[in-house]
Amino acid sequence: MKILVPVKRVIDYNVKPRVKPDGTGVDLSNVKMSMNPFDEIAVEEAIRLKEKGAANEIVAVSIGPDKAQETLRTALAMGADRAILVVAEDVEPLGVAKILAKIVEEEAPGLVILGKQAIDDDSNQTGQMLAALTGRPQGTFASKVEVKGDAVEVTREVDGGLETVSLKTPAIVTTDLRLNEPRYASLPNIMKAKSKPLAQKTPADYGVDVSPRLKTLKVAEPPVRSAGIKVADVDALVAKLKEMGVAG
Amino acid sequence: MKTLVYVEHDNASMKDATLAVVTAASQLGEVHALVAGHNCGAVADAAAKIAGISKVHVADNAAYANQLAENVAPLVADLMGHHDAVLFPATAHGKNIAPRVAAQLDVMQISDILSVESADTFTRPIYAGNAIATVQSSDAKKVITVRGTAFAKAEATGGSAAVEAVSGPGDAGTSSFVGAEIVKLERPELTSAKIIVSGGRALKDGPTFEATIFPLADKLGAAVGASRAAVDAGYVPNDYQVGQTGKIVAPEVYIAVGISGAIQHLAGMKDSKTIIAINKDEDAPIFQVADIGLVGDLFNVVPELTGKL
Fold it and tell me: What percent of chain A has pLDDT over 70?
């Protein structure tokens, strides 16, 4: 079975994003960029399935700027076998899903594993959209993935606990945080990744129109909370709580 | 504009998250509701009583019992022939189904809206709530998920909507429900609690977390939350997690105990009305957002506080 893993180059999760003063977006110049953390989990899960013998090839794909090559090299260094870069800037989830649907048609993977959301636009849409466009079942927010014959059993994180669904393969899975802990690429593997195949494409190669449907009118800082007071001891805190009517 | 609200429920009762979605929908136009489930008559009756809903569509079919996205999305997409916008709660459930509907309709979804600015313009958080984007949709139909804490809850009573049965394509035959492990809570649920006591990594381990945080929460009738660090360390199960990747909460009072205040955590609770922080590190970022801060060792402070309440 082949596994397709889409990855996105995003602002590093440790960096605090700054809104541009002109309100047109978030300032990404000179900011550390990394693979979206949920996508790292997706790559790791694909590698583990390959190590278990449930998969034999992992194809990483990214739809993004030229520099997304680095993100794909990271996936290759972790253990993906080859990569596809579709060069396009700022494509919305719907456009990304349409391109991925075409790649799925070409590559016919048994599983597509994606991060549940990207930490830049926080849309949480691409996996579900890809599932709809390809007519495949979806296991979103996965905390456990088990391949069982021609089905995959996915345990999902839902409000209040966990839910398990069985999906007929080919299927789409999106990862939640606790699915696994991604490995670090070793230096020899980073070197090896440099010679793994990386194909370059454009949305036009797939005949997909990626013109945006949403127009961002403005990006603003969230309302700021200012620091309040400090109380000296527990008695003062209890007094405050009583004032607020929280404690009797 | 005719809107459709996806009612969140477990076939027996309606979830509160639905009520905030009704408020958002009513800012766009006429509100219809969809109850997709099996033996879900009680939910349909409850939905019909929500103030502001004029019609409830009920799809009662074994294929919708567990509301699998593969089965439910085509049903919603069909109903969108007669509606201009569909709104889901931005819960695990809503987020699972909504994008599948959007892609079927060739619509770019607007996720997690915080406000309705006009019929086609909305605000939504990006970058873990570190920025708020105002976006305008050019799609004829709108598919929207709604952040529950950003809208007031519609009145659960006072309405008398007509209930109408609808049928959809049924079982897509590609997925099946295996089982669920839903944790039975002895305390209020996080997303609807008035008071939340949350613990962080400083709580050391599971038993210490329980022995320290639970008594205080019970004294206050509060829900218990945790930071991602505490969840990752295994002190408490994942559904306790408050933060961008966990639950987004906005209670009257949020008490953060031994939580440093990482960006991820703040994104999940900074809309709380009053934030109280207890931390021994006076430079902890949590104090920058706290209304009331107490610098001290939580292992002394929390038991003393619990005792004096």
Answer: 100
Number of H helices, E strands in chain A: 6, 13
Write down the pTM of the prediction: 0.92
User: What per-residue confidence (pLDDT) applies to B244?
Assistant: 78
Q: Tell me the shortest Cα–Cα distance from B160 to chain A, in angstroms.
A: 29
Residue B184 has pLDDT above 90, yes or no: no
Nearest-CB residue to A137 (from B137, B139, B175): B175
Residue B185, chain A, CB below 8 Å: the answer is yes
Cβ-nearest to A222 among B102, B131, B245: B131
Contact status of B128 with chain A (Cβ, < 8 Å): yes
DSSP element (H, E) containing B176: strand B175-182
Whether omega before A137 lies within 30 degrees of 0, making that bond cis, reads no
CATH of segment(s) B2-165: 3.40.50.620
Is A156 within 8 Å of B92 when comparing Cβ atoms? Answer: yes
pLDDT at A107 exceeding the cut of 80:
yes
CATH 1.20.900.10 at A2-243, yes or no: no
Q: In terms of CATH, what superfamily is B190-308?
A: TPP-binding domain (3.40.50.1220)
The label of the residue with tokens 């979206």 reads A36
Average per-residue pLDDT in chain A? 95
CA distance B70 to chain A (A): 6
Extents of the domains making up chain A: 2-243
A40 touches A181 (CB < 8 A): no
**Residue in A closest to B234 by C-alpha:** A178
Q: Where in chain B are the domains?
A: 2-165, 190-308
